[in-house]
Each structure stands twice: as C-alpha cells, then as structure tokens.
Amino acid sequence: MRMRGLGLALLVGAMLPGASRAQSTPVPGALKPYVKDGTFDSGDFGWMAGRFATEGTAARAAWESVEAYKDACIAAATGQAKAELAAIGAESANLPPRSYGDEMCRAITAAMVIDAASEAERAALPARLAEARRLWDFALAGGRMGIGAVTSAVGPPESEDAQMLIGATFREQLGRHMLSWGVDESDPPLPARLKPLFDYLGWTMVAGEDRKNREKLRGYMAEKGWPTISAVGEKASHAAWLLAQHADDDPALQVRALRLMEPLAKAGEASKSNYAYLYDRVMLKLAGKQRYATQFGGCETGQAIRPLRPMEDDDPAHIDAARADMGLEPLADYRRSMDEAFGACGTAE
User: Which positions carry the signal peptide feature in this UniProt record (predicted)?
Assistant: First the structure.
C-alpha cells in the first residue's frame, strides 16, 4: 500500500528533546590504553596487532574482544535509536545498524576498518597516518577550499540565528568536500597508500562537526521550531536543512525536523525540494522506500544506468509528477546530472 502522507508514514508524536547518548558498552581491556579523557586515539595501532595473531594466543583473544565490542556497541546504539523513534511514534523496522550517538563506538569502529592486510602493514600505519595528517592539515589550511571562500559565497547573514545556522555548515562541508580529494584535476596527488587514512581523518572531522551541529539544531528546534524562510532567510533555512540531512546519527531528530518542515513547505516557509530530499533520506532508513527519487544506489558491474533505491511507487509518470510537485527536475535529467558528477554506470568511477 502506498504511503499517503507523513502523518500516516511516521505517525504524529510529541516533540521530545533529544540528547547526545552516553557510551553504553564497556570498552575492552585491549582498548583502554587508547582511551584518554573519554576519547579514543588509535595511537600506534597496537590494539590491531591481534588481527594477524595465531588463534588461541592472548593477542588473538584481545582482537576478538575488540570485535565483540564493535558488535555489542552497534547493537546497543541501534536499539536505543529504535526506542527513541518508538517514543515519538515513528517506525524503525528498517533502521540499519550503526553507532547512533555513541561516539566511542563510532571512533573505534571507524579505526577498525582502516585497511591493513598484514602485520607489516599494521606496523606501518602510525607513520602513514602521520604522513596523511600532514597532507590533511595542508588541505584544511586552504590547499583545496578555505573557509573564507565559503563565507564570501553565502554573504553576510541577516541575524544571529542565521549566522549560527550558516556558520554551522562551514566545517562539515569543508570536511565532506575534502573526502572527494582527487576528483578535481587541480588537487595535489594523494598516494594510494594514504587514501584510507586521509578518509579516516576526513570522516573523523565530519563526525565531530555533525555531532556539534545536531546539538545546535536540536536546541533551536526545541526553542523556536523549524527555522523558516521569513524568520532567518532562505540561505539559513537551507543551512538548517543541511544539518538535518546530515544528522543520521539521530534519526529521531531527523523525524522531528521532517514533521516540522512538512506544513512549512506547503506554506512556502521551507523549501519543498529540501523537504523531498529529507523525506527520502529518512523514509529509506525507517521504512525502506522513498517517494521523490532523490536517492540512488551505487553502480554495480553490468548495470546500464544508475539504479534508484526502492520507491513507494515505481510508475515513471507518478515519479516525475511527485518530483514536479516538489520543484524537482524530471528523473531523467537528475540521473544525467548524477552521471556527469560521478560517472555513468559502465564507465570507471
């Protein structure tokens, strides 16, 4: 059955203020030396050595305790996120497992996926991370895109609220921009061996900025509701949407933002297209289907065109009608723009 509206899809729930979730899963002994003042530091990556140790050894058991921690902290964080969604009457059957709001879990699981195929490569990680950090610091200082360029592009904000909302996007956008290092021909070359570590630094920065921005958006919404175009201006209202779009670690906050935006989008006080993108992002997580065809999957071998993620209604005419209602271009044009930006399926991306 096709979902007919946000009220039916998500139900109407109370506006409950959220909060950053405290660490809920004890860190294993193998990782405790790398936790300082409540923050995980990958350090010399010695905690990863057991990955390559012989079964039955103490080192291997230590690594297995790290893997068990990862599974436990993700399960606990996902369960807590589902409970928060249930408290506001939102479904969560399709919510994917991740570290929702548990910053220790996020930091450790992010470090665990850094590629090392052997103990020798593991031992080389500290030096490679230091080298990647030097390149990262150069980029952050303006090697690719400085904060000043962003500031001049958006122009002076009209109020303190607008300044806060627009300013909150600068560093998270800079971090995300640098994750695509190498796409621009003017980017200095990045050695392949450093790319995973460069990305690790990027996502660490982005996660920290997103955490701070969730707190800012949560506080604003609790006090004033959604930042409307008439109250803060179009650019700041758009910036607020960007913060909500990237608040994936707090799906309940995204649901509350979506509920606030729905009537405002109809009244011209929030962007319809922004609402459509947030609706699809949220509903794909919660119910497994989108409405406005804003979200694509990745190109797989043998695919002729970039695939859409699951839709509530697959009829091409209905898709384009729904997109037009939200001020979005026809799907064929949108897919073409995605191919231009990321490369068409069947070609190297």
Answer: 1-22
The pTM score is 0.88
Question: Could you read off the pLDDT of 142-188 as tens digits, one per residue?
Answer: 745 444 444 444 455 579 999 999 999 999 999 998 888 877 777 77
Closest CA to 42 of 117, 127, 99: 127
Measured CA angle at 108 (ends 295, 24), to 5 deg: 95
- In degrees rounded to 5, what are phi and psi of residue 216? -65, -45
Residue 328's identity, in one-letter code, is L
Could you please report the per-residue DSSP string of 75-134?
A: HHHHHHHHHHHHHTT---TTPPP--TT-HHHHHHHHHHTS--SSHHHHHHHHHHHHHHHH
27-55 pLDDT tens trace: 999 999 999 999 999 999 999 999 999 99
Tell me the sheet residues that pair with 290: 311
Q: Which two tokens stand for residue 144?
A: 């690719």
Q: Give the sign of the dihedral formed by CA 318, CA 323, CA 327, CA 333.
A: negative
CA-based max dimension of the chain: 65
Residues facing 311 on adjacent strands: 290
Of 197, 176, 181, nearest in space to 129 by CA: 197
**Alpha-carbon span 101 to 142, nearest angstrom:** 30
Helices marked H in the chain — which ranges? 6-10, 58-87, 103-112, 119-138, 147-154, 160-178, 195-224, 229-232, 234-245, 251-267, 272-286, 316-325, 331-342
